[in-house]
Amino acid sequence: MSDHRSLHVPDGLEGERVDAALARLFGLSRGRAADIIASGDVQVDGRQVSKSDRVTAGAWLEVTLPPPPAAPVAIPEPVPGMSIVHEDDDIVVVNKPIGVAAHPTTGWTGPTVIGGLLGTGHTVATSGAAERQGIVHRLDANTTGCMVVAKSEIAYSRLKHAFHDREITKRYHALVQGHPDPFRGTVDAPIDRHPSGSGKFAVIMGGKPSITHYDTIEAFRAATLLDINLETGRTHQIRVHMSALKHPCVGDMMYGADPTIAARLGLTRQWLHAVKLGFVHPTTDEYVEFTSPYPDDLQKALDIVGAES
């Protein structure tokens, strides 16, 4: 059932784009807000608007919100290539392969970590939204490596707090184009959704605080292998920050990588891998750490880069 809302534009949204204002007011994604505007269900002071129009504080906003889409459901089925690194009564740590999302989302029809676990008889915590039960952190669908899922309710609660409070060790390796200068450094730049509504993220003034520490493992002729320590965990954080440095992850065409380099190395995704995940176990209170080797596509690309140097 549709939901009609009428209100004055708050002072804090003065000058915002209409799609951004709707997203902030009603907790929508920018893409969903743009779709509602395009359908003609948004009026400002009695006239229809486009998503790029700007709102004025105090203007009368009328919106007809469509019913929310049904939450996607994880399909229990084994995921080829997904292996179990560790499992006990409270947690399961997986080595996530390429092309697998953490949990189902609107528009994603591929395999998921949750579906893979359920499909092989594992249990997960029932806390959280129905489509992402047990999920305490995520990796992009095409980012591989270590990922932990909560099995018990106490593990879910404690790990969620640990990730929120930055008490987790998250180490990644990334092969980036060129040579970052300096070879060791920190990127402290806020991240939010790209204004285009394309699903990309970007460094945006007023975005969520985001901090990435990087160090050089090895410099090659045309690329550099970095060890990356995430202090925060924003969506696409490493990819956005490396792109902002003008050294995108090799193969990451979404964020400005050179497609000819990716083709030469046989890459169909970004060279980015979650090599290490460490945390205090939620029930034993002991520090545990798990590692993941490079998958075949990343190792092959690294071998080629090394041979060319």
Automatic annotation (TrEMBL):
Top-level taxon in the UniProt lineage: Bacteria
Keyword terms of this UniProt record: Isomerase, RNA-binding
Record-listed E.C. numbers: 5.4.99.-
Enzyme class: isomerase
UniProt-listed InterPro entries: PsdUridine_synth_cat_dom_sf (IPR020103), PsdUridine_synth_RluA-like_CS (IPR006224), PsdUridine_synth_RluC/D (IPR006225), PsdUridine_synth_RsuA/RluA (IPR006145), RluA_PseudoU_synthase (IPR050188), S4_RNA-bd (IPR002942), S4_RNA-bd_sf (IPR036986)
Domain RNA-binding S4: 16-72
Catalyzed chemical reaction(s): a uridine in RNA = a pseudouridine in RNA
Gene3D superfamilies in UniProt: Pseudouridine synthase, RNA-binding S4 domain
Family according to the record: Belongs to the pseudouridine synthase RluA family.
Role, per record: Responsible for synthesis of pseudouridine from uracil.
Protein name: Pseudouridine synthase
Organism: Actinocorallia longicatena
